[in-house]
Structures are given as C-alpha cells and as structure tokens.
Amino acid sequence: MTTTTETYGVDPSPTPLALLLLGREADPASERGVECPGDLPAASDPDLVARARAAKEQLGDRVFILGHHYQRDEVIEFADVTGDSFKLARDAAARPEAEYIVFCGVHFMAESADILTTDAQQVVLPDLAAGCSMADMATAEQVAECWDALTDAGIADVTVPVSYMNSSADIKAFTGKHGGTICTSSNAKRALEWAFEQGQKVLFLPDQHLGRNTAVLEMGFSLEDCVLYNPHKPNGGLTAEQLRNAKMILWRGHCSVHGRFSLDSVNEVRERIPGVTVLVHPECKHEVVTAADMVGSTEYIIKALDAAEPGSKWAIGTELNLVRRLAKAHPDKEVVFLDRAVCFCSTMNRIDLPHLVWALESLVEGRVPNVITVDPETEKYAKAALDRMLALP
Ligand code: SF4
After folding, report:
1. Are residues 358 and 340 in the same domain?
2. 313 belongs to a structural domain
3. Quick check: CB of 321 below 6 Å from ligand 1?
4. Domain with 248 in it: what CATH number?
5. Which of 47, 130, 306, 357 fits as disulfide partner to 350, beta carbons 3.0 to 4.6 Å?
6. Of 201, 192, 189, 209, nearest to 252 (Cα)?
7. Cα separation of 204 and 225, whole Å?
8. Domain that holds residue 40
9. Does the CB atom of residue 351 touch ligand 1 within 6 A?
C-alpha cells in the first residue's frame, strides 16, 4: 500500500479561505439539512447573552449544558462542563437529576448521551443540522453490505468491528451486535488490542486515519496489513483475497477538518517558526501524524499545553475553536494553528448563541425542542458496544 492522498481518500485540493468560513467543505450529501423550527433570535440581538443567562437561571438544575471542545466561545461560556464526546456523555449520565441535557455538539454525540442517560432525561440538540460528516460517511445499509462482503470472503466470523465514538447510533449498534467495541481517540490502541484477542481481523469504522495511525504507529502493523474499504464501490473495491490477507479493514471515512492538514502544513510551520513542536490529532492523515512531533486526542492536547514550558512554541493540528482558546489560555507560550488556512468544523459551528437561546427559552416555556432519541433496540446493542469499551483494561 502506498501513502498517497488517493489511497487515503481525501480531496487534496485546497479550499479557499472564504469558502471554509462559509462551511463549503461540508459534504452536502451527508448533511441532514434540517432547519431549526420556530423563531430564532436574530444574531444581532444585543440581549442574547442576557437572555441565555436568564433562561439558564430559570431552569436551574433541571438543565445541564454540555459543550464540546470544538464549540464556539459564545456557546462554551454557558456550558456546565466541557470535554470530548465521550466525557460529555458520561458527565450527562452522572447528572440524573437534570431533566434536560442540552448538548452543544453534533448529532452522534447527542445520540450517545441519550443512550447513556436515563429514560426520564431528554437530550436536546440546539440545531438539528449539526451533523458530523465523518459519522455520516458510514450508513447502516453500507455497513451491512460490507459485512456481507466479509461473509462472502469467509472472514466475517474472525473479524471484530471496532467503531470510533464518532459514529451514528446505528453503527454503534451494528458493532455491539457483532461482538465489537467502541473506541475513542484516547483508547483506540487498547480497543484494538482487545479486538485482536477476540479475532484475527478488525473492521475499523468510520475513520480510516485513526484506525491506520493506531495500527501502524502504535501496534506495529505495516501499511500493507491495512486495506481501505470504499462503500461506494462493489465489494468495497477489494478482492476477496485482499480482504482475506488484511489485518485491518479500514472504512473509507475521514474528518473533513483534520483531513485538511497536509505534509506541506507541517513543513511550512517548521520553516516559519524554528523550534516549534507540532502536535496533531490522530484523525489527521498518516503522513501528517508521521511528520509531527506528538500525536494525541483533544484531552491529550489540552494537557500537553498545560504542562508545556513558558516560552515554548506549538503548532496544533486540530479544530480551530479549540486552538484559539488554547492560545488565549496560554499567553506565555506561542500557540498557532497548524495550517495557514482558517478551518472550523462547519457543523459544530451551527450551534451558536441564537440556537442556544432558542433552545433554553423553549424549555422555559415548557416546549422541549429537537429531542434526540435512539430507539430501544438500537440502544440495547449500541450500549453493549459502549459497555465493552468501558470494560477495556
Ligand atoms: S471535527 Fe470532524 S469528526 Fe468532529 S464533528 Fe466535525 S467533522 Fe465530525
């Protein structure tokens, strides 16, 4: 297997700055495109902050607001807790007295919160259009077809699915049903070690980069041990023999934000800032992670910056809202975004102050908007997969 961008399935063409700000990088086919019902306050309303504060106060302990690390500052300001998707779902589960969980993040995160919270709690996503293009790259139908291909190749019974937290409830349920586990970017290695104790091969969904980076850089597999399953091609674009020879069957999905960082970004920043430490998220392409000095989850990145020496220089390859907050929180260090082009997660950014105010004021008025619910059957199997992750050594 060669390490080309073609192999990794990421569009290598740069997107002009203005288009990134408009969210043009999003894949229209993967967006839900659901408009927020009701009257949204105008973004120009000077009372938005006061309105959010008042509604939150009125709701008191009945509401618990979760803010993902990639959310805008204006939203994070009202979060009771911040974190990555799994930490937030667990935080929600630890607050059973909260009737309403307002999840400032994206759709799959709200689903996970619904799975892990009690039936009495309702999970609200302030904008239903806040999907995740990576999660939407693996649908239940496509994954069922892939499993058929593995069955035809005679390897389904020795293959263990491992799905990244960034996947829909349907994919988590598929994983649970077939004896697999969920992983996060912090515990992917442990999840893969566990999976290889259960079977001989892993079907890794939906982020090819996290799967490849973990298998090759942390577990000693070679790039040739990995094959890329393309759900848009018959049999994933692979022969039965290729499937049988592979150790890691990587789903052809990626994060449109982290997938933008390139080897050029790393080389350019090293030239621009001598002595810089390049720290990237494992959702970045293999060539980027290989060229970086350090790699780790968002929680790892935050801790690394906390522990860094004053005066040290850092180029961070993760979502821009988080990098900007880190730069602000560490004025004694030089913290820059890895790429010269500005790139937010366009779906994360759909949650803004008007949507948060709208959601909170609706709750005050007794209307529960944009409730995210996972059906009991899906929840049962998805929870089985999540429980296996929790039981990982
Ligand atoms: S940053 Fe990437 S993985 Fe995270 S929500 Fe946005 S598109 Fe999905």
Report:
1. no
2. yes
3. no
4. 3.40.50.10800
5. 130
6. 209
7. 13
8. 31-132+348-377
9. no
Type of residue numbered 104 = C
From the CA of 391, how far away is ligand 1's center (Å)? 26
Lookup result for tokens 């937290």: 165
Whether 345 lines ligand 1, by a CB cut-off of 6 Å, is: yes
Q: Picking from 21-25, 65-69, 136-140, 146-150, which range would have the lowest pLDDT averaged per residue?
A: 21-25
- Asked whether residue 392 is domain-assigned, the answer is no
What's the pLDDT score for residue 38?
60
Determine the residue of 132, 251, 297 to mutate for testing ligand 1's pocket, defined as the one with the most ligand atoms within 8 A of the Cβ atom.
Answer: 132
Q: What residues are paired with 100 via a beta bridge?
A: 63, 122
What's the 41 CA to ligand 1 centre distance in angstroms? 26
160 & 240 share domain = yes
What mean pLDDT value characterizes the chain?
Answer: 90
Domain assignment present for 391 = no
The answer on 242 and 160 residing in a single domain is yes
**For residue 235, pLDDT beyond 60:** yes
Residues 255-270 have pLDDT tens digits of 999 999 999 999 999 9
Residue 269 lies in a domain: yes
Q: Report the C-alpha dihedral over residues 6, 9, 14, 18, rounded to 10 degrees.
A: 170
User: How remote is the CA of residue 10 from the centroid of ligand 1, in Å?
Assistant: 14
